[in-house]
Predict the structure.
Amino acid sequence: MDVSFLPGEGGWYKVKVKNRKTIWRLSIRSFRASGKRNMIAALAIALTTILFTSLFTIAMSLNSSYQTYTFRQIGGYAHGTFKEVSEDQIQALKSHKLVKEAGKRTVVGSISEGGFAKVPAEISYMDQNQTKWSYIELAEGHEPEKENEVIMDTEALKFLGVSPSVGEVITLTYDVLDQAQSGGSRSDTFVLSGWWEYDPVTPVHFINVSEKYVENLEQQIKGQDQESFRTDLSVMLPSSLNIQGTMQKIEEDLGYQNENPDKDDYLGFGVNWGYTSAQTDSQMDPGIIAAIAAFLLLVIFTGYLIIYNIFQISVTEDIRYYGLLKTIGVTPRQLKRIIRQQALLLCLIGCPVGLAAGYLIGYLLVPIVISQTTLNTVGATVSSSPLIFVATALFSVVTVLLSCGRPGRMASRVSPVEAVKYTESGSYSRKERRTRGARISQMALANLGRNKKKTVLVVVSLSLSVVLLAVTHLFTGGFSMEKYLAEKNCADFIVGNTDYFQFRADGPESGISQEDAAMIQEHTNIQSGGQAWGIPGETPKTWLTEKQFRDTALGPSEDELSQMIQGREKRDQLIQTSLQIEGMDDALLDKLTVLEGSLDTLRNPEEKAIAIAVPADDYGNVRSMTSYPQPGEKLTVTYVDDGYYVDSRNGEKITDSTPEEYIQYHIAKSHDVEYTVCALVTVPYQISFRSSLMYGFDAVMQPDRLREDSGKELYSLFYMFDTPDREAETEAESFLADMTGGESSGLMYESKELSRKDFESFRQMFQLLGGALCAIVAVVGILNFFNAILTGILARKREFAVLQSIGMTGKQLKKMLILEGLLYAGATIFVSLILITAAEPLIGRLLESMFWFFEYQFNVAAVIITGPIFLILGVLLPMAVYRSIAKLTIVERLRETE
Amino acid sequence: MLVLKAENLRKIYGKGENQVKALDGVELSVEKGEFAAVVGTSGSGKSTLLHMLGGLDRPTSGKVYVDGKDIFSLKEEELTIFRRRKIGFVFQSYNLVPVLNVYENILLPIELDGKKTDRKFIDSILKTLGLEEKVRSLPGQLSGGQQQRVAIARALASKPAILLCDEPTGNLDSRTSQDVLSLLKVSSQKYTQTIVMITHNEEIAQLADRTIRIEDGRILPSRGRGMV
């Protein structure tokens, strides 16, 4: 029903009018009449929806696959974990409205002997949620219910010499771990109630026991005056955005704090850093947010233009037609409805096609592509949300309404007569016009210049598709294996005692023997190699100012710091701090990054030189360097010859009852050596101690100097070496695999090859999905070109008929059209080249700062791939269209459009 | 009784040097039931005047009263509805909707208004205009003359109080022209319709009650009924 106005007594009154059918008939007939144009428009809508849905689905899949990969490395995908919680706290946390789901885990012990020396096992009880979140998917059996039931992975079973079948009897000998990290060794016999496939990415072997077992064990050890077990509560929050803040809020709501561990209301928590959003939250880098926003804008704008473009090309035709309808008595309101109905019809065709294609690509193709490879073990997941599909459909409808509403608005703004007579008003800024004759090439050029706005719109739309392709390609192609390897491995091989790799090295027994080192040297082709050395026994001390002590401390609270400063031994206001000194052979020194100063004096054993190791994060960012002793300054190192622990309150030797916070190391006998700081360096993680002290910093010295000054026999932490070529690398790899294989060997190694394998499958997935993404964007870009050129020609059929009627030959017309097509292609190539040259370095640098294993390389592959296709289409399309329009005579064509 | 009145009507196209005064202060009154012919050379402003009288185009200044109503004071929506009920148009360029067939084109204004159609009346118009055979044809399949007749049929179909015709017989042969004119006359008498018709055919102008001459956007002083 339409509301209309009728003149009557007392003015105008509203009546309802039955004209819906008429309007609908007009809509559908007009719609049908512009067949080809509608096909193109529907295709444009489909393109935009495909672009959106597949782009977002694949991008989200990549992101979630990356996250899953990280989660597996971490060992779970819960949003965060509240640590060391009591039963009361669990209940309180669970009932908080921001906690959507919770999973409990109680750790009772660990095994790090035998087969578990390389990857340790943790014996714990996990509830159902926690089990699920830890990627434990039982291949057979059920979770432990009876007291003696246990589940574990295939690799753990192998170490224990048990076959993976339910009902097997297993005796586990493990170290009991109460909250004080002690409890002695214990043996119990279990029955295997289930098992799952080992995931080599996980950091530990989970061995899960029943809740009952844990409860009984806890009763027992409490009787032995030990502390209870540590229970953590993992939680799922409403969203993965701002996990830190949400968990903080939950704590505050419940009256806890995570600042001061000494207070009763302390409740610690950890955020799962695998959530990319959590990472970006904590970094809060506006550049990254801007980059994501810019990319989204680029995608949306490209999609918008793909649709808008098509409608703008034939806008004149539409304005005339709508004007005609107006003269006959179609009111603006009715006109709007006709336009709306046609737009919805277009969407009805375009959207389902696009959404279906997007769905096929996202939900069906991606898993198929992944399953063709060995990637499913990496945990590639398809991630998308129906919201994207709904939002895309809505976006398309709105864009179409906006685009085709424009001619309607223009037609209703002017009077019907003006609308009927509407001609494209080109902005002729040129006052004088040189007569250049009517050469075909000039005409083609003039045709593009005739409506500059339209031409610019077409070229921008086409170029943006190319830019989008370039950005997508840049992103997915830039994951650099070499950069990853360089970061993950500073050397080809590092061989050491398992203790070193598990952060437990503290004496000669956890080092690598000189016989082993010699054997490696003998059997492998080494280009350069060297060892790192540690001092056995008590860590040497140095003396820091209070400011240095505070600034270099890693994360303690203010209270803790003050207490620590209070309790430390002092010397002239300087605070005693432990200093881990790593002796490094020359080959290792080459791997250091010098931030300030120079290593020249360090290499000379005659010089009393020391380098300070400054911590850096994954991205190579260094904390403020001013907190550390500067090059040229003197640093006194106190080597401890003898010492013992005392109670800081009375200076007497400690007893079992001395509270931890009052335990202080007292140096009975020591000697000082003064060094000159030669440099501030960063030590690659792989050749560092791999663990740092909470206070102070680490240092690097020449081993001979260190041996002499400390007066102790140093032990070798590890042997690091590089091979000259890939062949030598492969040989060394297999030699080391043999040498360190088996449970008896206390050695293990890290190599580039292992990391390469590690990363390869992940990168493969990235490239496959990224390749699919690029292909889609490229196809969309090419079809967009196809669309734009085709519409451009179809909209000017009458104009061509006029030109031919006054004597332009078919050949000339064809030539003109081809020239126009080539001009469009050329302009697109030119503009996209400029845009890419301008934008790529910016985007590349940004990505490098976002992903440390990303390496930016300028490339114009997007233009090289699409450019020729555009040029070919620029020639072929006009020819094909010309053939189809030439079927009608000039007169027929002239009349057709009247 | 006056049915159509124009007051100081001006229409100026373009600006500055390029200014064209299509209408330059036109004063015009048409009585109810009157048959007026507007004659003038091409570019004299005839079509512009007709468009203004029918509210199809807005004047630069001046007013048009239809049935005493100032039509340009109406909103776009109201004006369109008012126009399609009160005024029938016959355009020089026919203005048929290419996607609708002859019958649908003729009924369109009535249907847009949501009114019931008087089939008998429509059939009689179709018969008079010789379009019975062509009702299912699309405008593109018709000759110029046939399209012209469809346009006339459409204008008559809603029995408007005023008929504004722009060269209605321009594309017709002399016999059909005679038929069309007599149809217009008969219809105007039967329904007391007012007709304003543009023509450059003096013979046709002779048939009118009054001839209005227009030159350079101004109406020339009347030389009286029936005088050449």
